[in-house]
Amino acid sequence: MPSLDLYRKVGIYGGGLFFAITGMAQPFFTLYAQEVGASTSAIGFMVTLRSLLPIFIAMPAGQMIDSIGPMKMLKWGSLLLILSLFTTYYGNGLWMLSLSQFFMGASIVIMASALQVLVSDGEKNKRNENINKYSMWMSGGGMLGPLVGGGVVSLFASELMGYKTSFLISGIASIGFLIFILVISRNYPHPDPNQAEIKPRDIIRVKGIVDSYTSGWHLTKIRAVQFGLIGTFLIMYIQALYMSFMPLYMKELGYSTFVISIVLAIRGLAGMLSRYALNWIMKRTHLERILTIAGMIASVCVLLTPLAGLHIVGIIVLVLIMGSAVGVNLPVSIMIVVNDTKDSDRGKLMGLRLLTNRFSQILSPAMFGILGQTLGLSFAFFTGGIFLVSMMFGFSLYTSKNWNLKTDARDKVQAAKR
């Protein structure tokens, strides 16, 4: 039987592949929707739908992971990913495109939760190292996906046909990913559903869904979990805003799809490279300070976007800084929330974290889409930046004064032995 370390590697490298596949499609979804006639506000609400279904399934998905294991849940997530990508490919109306975002949102919450549970197993130092590697590969996938997708789109005279081809290729790649999961999961030590605290068939019932939220709610009483959830909410708000509307803004400024894809890839590269510096940073300060400073930097980047948009060099510098700041959010927020929780609650915890992310990804595109439609994208970035800087400053000031959390990323006992 393969060791559990093999499946931790599946979580790490599988995360890179998964986000490369979604990266080929998701950054171009807004541009594709615009091509078929959607307004800025309609696009904002369609992107919002991507996060709507996960609100209702995030906690049940986490509980299912605890009951039947992450590898089985990866199969279901892969099926939903395939369904989403081919719905996007065949869809040429707002209803079909909206439906594709429902499927995509469900896939992401299931896949991300299962992958994070795989990599967050083990003792503290090894666990944090794997989380950092997973985050780095996730950013690597986020860098490669837009590059490949943008390259595909640039091969076609018709951008509409280029977008559809990129969706098709990513759909075919997702089928290959599902086949890989089916093969590699054969020897995984799946939990016995009959021994689970809550049986899988009970989780998917209405009462089970309600119970999954109430049973996981006790985790929010833990101060470190509260900090990690609020911090990641604010930073994911920024990421959802940027990933959804930066391509539209650059298109409005006259940049080609290929240039846009390169800029998005640079952002992914910055996120990946920031993980190399993260170990050095974690040795010098606590995780809560890292998260708040990263959030403040990302907020300032949103505020400066209209100014940076005056020249391509300014955009590249800005996305490098933004990508680095947002890049540390995922590993640091996971390290904070898992530090004071039990292994048996890991699935529920990841579901709770992703539920928080989905709330931010609902509010961000909807609010920003309305602002962009009525006032223009430049003014929307400016006002959104002021709001986010204020929120991050208030969050940092309040928590440092009243909570005084200082989570060390390393196990002090093991660190002392080195």
Automatic annotation (TrEMBL):
Pfam families: MFS_1. Keywords: Membrane, Transmembrane, Transmembrane helix, Transport. It is a multi-pass membrane protein. Its main location: membrane. Residues 1-402 form the Major facilitator superfamily (MFS) profile domain. It is found in: Cell membrane. InterPro entries: MFS, MFS_dom, MFS_trans_sf, Sugar_transport-like. The chain crosses the membrane at residues 12-32, 38-61, 73-90, 102-122, 134-157, 163-184, 227-249, 255-278, 290-309, 315-338, 377-398. PROSITE patterns: MFS. This is MFS transporter. It comes from Paenibacillus agricola. The lineage of its organism: Bacteria, Bacillati, Bacillota, Bacilli, Bacillales.
